[in-house]
Amino acid sequence: MTKKYADIIVDISHEKLDRTFQYLVPEEMQEILTEGMVVTIPFGRGDRQIKGYVTGFDDKPSFDVSKMKRIIRANSNEETVESKLVALAAWMRQNYGSTMIQALKTVLPVKDKVKGKEARKVCLRISKADGARLLDEYLNKHYVAKARLLAGLLDQAELPYQVVTAKLQVTANVIRSLEKDGILEITTESVYRDALEEVTDTKCDILTKEQTQVVNGILEEWEADDRPCLIHGITGSGKTQVYMELIQETVDQGRQVIVLIPEIALTHQIVMRFLHRFGKGVSFLNSRMSTAQRYDQFKAAKAGDVQIMVGPRSALFTPFPDLGLIIMDEEHETSYHSETVPRYHAREVAVRRGEMEQAHVVMGSATPSVTAYYHAMEGDYRLFRLRERYGSSQLPKTTIIDMREELKAGNRSIFSRSLQEAIALRLEKKEQVMLFLNRRGYAGFVSCRSCGYVAKCPHCDVSLSSHRNGKLICHYCGYETPDLKECPECQSTYIGGFGAGTQQIESLVLQMFPGVRVLRMDLDTTRGKDGHAKILTAFENGEADILIGTQMIVKGHDFPHVTLVGVLAADLSLHAADYCAGERTFQLVCQAVGRAGRGEQAGEAFIQTYDPEHPALVAAADQDYEAFYDEEIAYRTLMGYPPVDAMMAILGSGMLEEHLEQAMEYLKKYLQQIYRKPDLQIIGPAPESIGKINDRYRKVIYCKHPKYDILTMIKDQLERYIQINSGYDSIQIQFDMT
Ligand code: ADP
Ligand code: ZN
Ligand code: ZN
C-alpha cells in the first residue's frame, strides 16, 4: 500500500481516541513516515499547528481530497512513550486482527470521564481511641453528619467515597472539613500502597550457586544476542530471586521494569516480597482497579515516580520512558492470552515491545508452555535451568492410581483406597491435605470407567463432547456421532460423563471423616471481593484440615503444612476438546503435586486416573518436563498443531443460527479462493465448545499453515472482505492467532 493518506490522532490522553483525522502525506514523507511517529499538522479553525500521532495509512481518501490538509512536518527524532505505544498498537492490530481504535484502547492509558468517582476512598487517619473520643464530642455538639461519617469510619477504616455520599448521606463539604482537620484522607491509590508502612528496610538474599549462574548467564546474553530468556525452574527453585537480581541491575542503570504475573498470583506474600526488596520504587496493578486508578498508576510510571510495575497482562502497557526489562512469571498461564479483541498473547507482545524499545525480556516457569520451550529449542529464546529447590524441601513421592482397578475391586467411590488411607493418616498426624478436582476445560467428554476408553474424533484426535441432543460432536471439524450406550472396546455399560463437582466431594469427605474441618474453593465460594485470599489465608492459618478446590488452589500460596495432595479425576482436563489438553493437564498436575511438602515434612501425592499410562500424567508424576515435551511436540508435529504449524481460529457469532452458518460457509469459500495451495488446511465450520452464549450462536473455522505470515495475510484479506460485505453486519467475526 502506498502511504498517500495518514490517519492521525491528536490527543491520546482523553476518551477521544475514537477520533482520527485524515491528512495528506507529502511525497517526500512517504518513505520515512511510520506508525506511531509524531507529526506536526494544521488543526482546527485558524490552522493552529499542533502535534499528533500517525496511527495508520490508506491509499484511498475518506473524504474530498481538495479539502484535505497536508502534514507539515514529520518529527522523526521526537520519540515519546506514546509514539512507541502507538507503534505497538499498530503491530497488534496487524498481527491479531482488530480495528486501530480497539488496539489503541488496549495499549494507551485512557483517562476516565467519571474520574475517581468509584475509585476514591475515604480513609480514617487517626487512631480508633482518638476517633471514639472525637465521636463523643461531635454527638455532644450535635454535629450529626460528622458523627455519622466518623462512626462509619470507626466501623470500617476505609469507605468508598460513593458509599459515604450516597449511603451515609454525607456531603462533600463535610468530608473536606474532616480532611482538613487531619481526621481522614481521600485516596485514589491502590490498596497495596498501604502495605508500604509495614516495610521498614529493604533487604536482599544471597543467591545460591545455581541461581548465580543463571543470573550471570542472562547478563551475558544481554550483552551478546539479547534474545528473550526462558528460565525453566522447578517450583521453589528461586526464580523470583533471580528476577529480583535482574530487576535491581536494570533499576541501577536508571531504566524501568515491568513484571507480569498471573492475576491470581498477586498475593500478600508476593507484594511483601517486592516491597521488602524495592520499597517505594514498586507499584502494583490489578484488574479490579478502575480505569481512573489505573490511569493514576500509569501517570506515576510516566513521571518516573515508580521504577517497577507488577501486574497482570495489562501492566505490559505501562508507559515507562526508558523501559529496560520485561519479566513474565508463570509464562505458561492461560490468563496471558486476551479473550477480547485484539486477542493478543502477552508473551508475543512483550517480545515485540522489547525489540522496539531495546528492553530485555525474561520469562520463567516450572512448566513452560510448549510454544515457549519450542522457541528455546529452535534457538529463538535462550534457555536457563534451575533444577534444585531452595533449602531442604524435597519433591513429593508421587503415585499414579489406576481407577479401573478400583472399579474391578468393587470400589465405586471417587476416592481410591490408597488415597482414603493416606488422608486418614495425615489427619491423625494433624497435617494438612489438598484435594484438587481437575475440571479445567471440562466439556462433557465421554469415557468408559471399565477400560478407560475415550470417544475421540477420527479426524482431529481430540475428545468428542456430548450434547443434550444425544450426539457426540467434534468442536474442531463438526464431526457427529450418536451418544454411546456401551463401550465399543469392552462393551461395558459404565460409560458416560464425569459428574462430580467440588460440592459433592466436600460432602463425601465429611461422610468419610466426620468432624473434619473442610474449606472449599471454587467459583461459588470465591465470588465476593477477596474471596480467594480469605480462603487461602484461613487454610494457611490452620483453620481447616482439608482444602478442596478446582485449579484455583494449585497456584499462588505456599502452604508449609500440606503434606498430601490428591488429584481427583486427572483425566478431566486430559480430554478437554482441544489440542492443548495434554499440555494443560501436565501443567496442572505438576503444579498440584508440587504443592505437597513445601515445608519441613516430606510430601506425598496421588494422581487418580482411568488412563494411568498417559504420557502427560506419567511425566507429571515424575516432574519430568523434558519427557513431556518430547512426547507432546511429536504429537503437535504429526498433527500440524501449533507451535509447529501456525493456526488461526475465525470465530463467528450471531443471533440467527442459519444466517451465521451461511456467513461462515461463504467465508470458507472466500478463503479457498484467496489461497489455493494445498498447504493451507481449512477445518470446519463447527460449533464452538460452548455453542451459544447470551443467545448468540458461535461457530469457528480453523486454518492451519506452516507459516504464520501467510495466515496474517489471509486474515487481512478476510478483514477487508468482511468490512465491505453487508452480509456480515449482524455477525461478529474475531480472529485468534496461535
Ligand atoms: P520460585 O519463584 O522458583 O517458585 P522462589 O523465588 O519463590 O521460587 O523461592 C522459593 C522460596 O525459597 C522462597 O520462600 C524464597 O524466599 C526462598 N529462597 C529462594 N532462594 C533463596 C535465597 N538465595 N536466599 C534466601 N531464600 C531463598
Ligand atoms: Zn470400555
Ligand atoms: Zn474433528
CATH class wording of the largest domain:
Alpha Beta
* Main beta sheet: 7 strands, parallel
- Gyration radius from CA atoms, angstroms: 28 Å
- Tally of extended strands? 30
End-to-end separation in angstroms reads 26 Å
Which residue ranges are poorly predicted, with pLDDT under 50 across at least 5 consecutive positions?
114-118, 190-195
Strand order of the largest sheet: 11-12-10-13-14-9-15
**Overall morphology:** globular
Averaged pLDDT, please?
86
**Distinct small molecules:** adenosine-5'-diphosphate, zinc ion
The protein's oligomeric status is single chain
Any idea of the CATH topology of the largest domain?
Rossmann fold
Helix content: 25-40%
Going by helix content, strand content and strand pairing, the class is alpha/beta
What count of helical segments does DSSP give? 22
Tally of individual domains? 5
Corresponding CATH superfamily of the largest domain = P-loop containing nucleotide triphosphate hydrolases
The appropriate CATH architecture of the largest domain is: 3-Layer(aba) Sandwich
Query: How large is the share of residues in beta strands?
Result: 15-25%
Describe it:
- This protein has 738 residues and is an alpha/beta fold.
- It folds into five domains: 4-107, GIY-YIG endonuclease (3-Layer(aba) Sandwich), CATH 3.40.1440.60; 118-190, no CATH class; 209-386, P-loop containing nucleotide triphosphate hydrolases (Rossmann fold); 397-443 and 499-636, P-loop containing nucleotide triphosphate hydrolases (Rossmann fold, 3-Layer(aba) Sandwich); 646-737, 2-Layer Sandwich (Alpha-Beta Plaits).
- It contains 22 helices and 30 strands.
- The strands form seven sheets. It has a seven-stranded parallel sheet, sandwiched between helices. A six-stranded parallel sheet has the order 16-26-25-17-24-23, with helices on both faces. A five-stranded antiparallel sheet has the order 2-1-4-3-5, with helices on one face.
- Strand 13 (323-329), helix 11 (346-357) and strand 14 form a beta-alpha-beta unit.
- Helix 1 (81-96) packs across helix 2 (100-107) and helix 18 packs parallel to helix 19.
- The radius of gyration is 28 Å and the shape is globular.
- The chain starts with a strand and ends with a strand.
- Residues 114-118 and 190-195 have low confidence and may be disordered.
- Bound molecules: adenosine-5'-diphosphate and zinc ion (ZN) (2 copies).
- Adenosine-5'-diphosphate (ADP) is lined by residues 205-208, 211, 233, 235-241, 390.
